[in-house]
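[scheduler] slot 2 assigned
[scheduler] job type: sequence-to-structure, two independent chains
[scheduler] chain ordering preserved from manifest
[runner] begin chain α
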Amino acid sequence: MFTEMFTDLKSASRLLLEAKLAPVQGTRFQPTGFPDLGAAEYRLPDGTVMLLVESPQSVANRLEATIWDTANKTVVKELQGIPYVEVYDQSGDFLTNSLLEAHRLNSNYILESKDDSFLNILKQELEIAPDKPLKFECFAKLLVKYDLNCLLHGLFLAKSEIAGGRYKMPRALSGFIEAHGVEKVVSGGVKLDRINAKGDAEQGAGNIPYHRVEYTAREIKAYFSLDLAQIYGYSLGDDVENLLIAIALWKIQKFLENGLRLRTACDLEVVALNVKKPAGFELPSIEVLSEALPKLIETAQPAFANPAITKVTYIPKPKKKKGNGATGNAPDTEAVEG
């Protein structure tokens, strides 16, 4: 039945999921906030007040985090064997990897190091001149080889040395959380100073009153979209395509199971999870996916780098030297790309 799932999805262009959420306790929740904006409120044409609870950027970060075992500095056991790039410092200590970095393989710790081994791998294997058309099938296969999660979460190789910085892979997996029919809950408190109630507030002393705004909502929903047409369009073969779909579904379910404590005052739980498209598709449980993933990884292994984990050393480049107009000093030729 599990393998039939992939057959059922072959004729679909999107997999759309909706999860109805509710606060674990009480009715109030705290949305994400943006600099100089605060909470993102907006209205529908019928006047319904809406609220962005979690942005697509934040949900992408949370989905990516589901597969990393922080305590053991490795991927979770269900996904052992997937390819990624690991970064060490010059002493041999672990620094980071492409699964953790905000820009994935385009991390400065991977591509802006004096150890340019991986940069040279990309340049050699893509083999695209700046004035030639891009070959996204080639790009996709390279990402499968070194970090197939980039195919789910997107990648922009902004290096001029690689096809003029034109390679950009959009997200295939995305999600966001929004609330319908919201009302503000305004409250506040006082930070008490046990020693000097009239102390200098600018120094953090004294009694300091503060306010806070939370929300209630008629309905809170999480939305997820997996672009199947994009995944199939790279002609990666059934083994890799099935693995990407299974990882995406596992990440969604793991996030909904363990990742909905978004903030101290925003702890949510799933009330219902529904498939909106394709009609009739039955979402496999996280237990079924967890059992199937090791076999799917083993089957797709010929497409991965050998070994699957590519190790690089981060060696900082010298900072760019500022030129002196009076003497005409030139900037350091090894300067970090601006």
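[runner] end chain α
[runner] begin chain β
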Amino acid sequence: MRDESLKNLVVVTNEILQSKYPLAEFAFLAGSLIRGEGTAFSDLDIVVIYKDLVGAYRESFYFRESFYFRGLPVETFVHTPETLNYFFDLDIAEKVPSLPVMVSEGIVIPHATDLSHKLKNLAQEILANPPKITKEEIQGFQYWITDLIDDIRDPRSKAELTAVGTRLYDALSSCYFRINEQWLAKGKSIPRSLQRHNPVFYQEFTASFEELFVVGKTERIINLAEKLLAPFGGFIFDGIKLDAPADWRKPIE
């Protein structure tokens, strides 16, 4: 069943290329559907490569012409090799390698070429070398998490606790990934990435946030934050100074 579904996705991607991107060199079919993790609402992620374009672009649409799927949601990321490489650098700067992951794991449609191999190798090299964490980055996490933890120690309402908790979910997961010198994850990929990297931490992380969001208990998540930051000096606030770059200024007209 899994092989048949994947085969159908390949056929559909070929149809999409022929009907919407007939001059493209090839495409990388990627995303949750090809990993077997998709839902009824998952879209088909496709990185489309041209030799030349005025500029890269991204578009979403429903593909209604397939024998295998009706109204399949599709999201395409349309690039040349040069624009793709530029966007790789943007992902590296954000420490969230979304495009490298898609290219690395993607199935080449209609078939592999020397260029597709080159782009895959570039993506895999990026993924194999997450940036080293800096002292300033660690201090930033300490300050950010300390501030959020202080906000949940005595929340004024359940609504405020939920609002701060959603920010804390991102802060603690990002801190975990970076102090372990891993790439960051975003949104729904956070629990999947945590589980893959450290199932024990994932279980504690998930249980702590369930207590926070479901019953409003904060002790467990505070303890988790303390353990995460302990090797770097724990929570910090007093005496912290975070310098902005000197050129961050705009003259008043």
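[runner] end chain β
[qc] chain β: The longest helix spans residues 158-179.
[scheduler] slot 2 released
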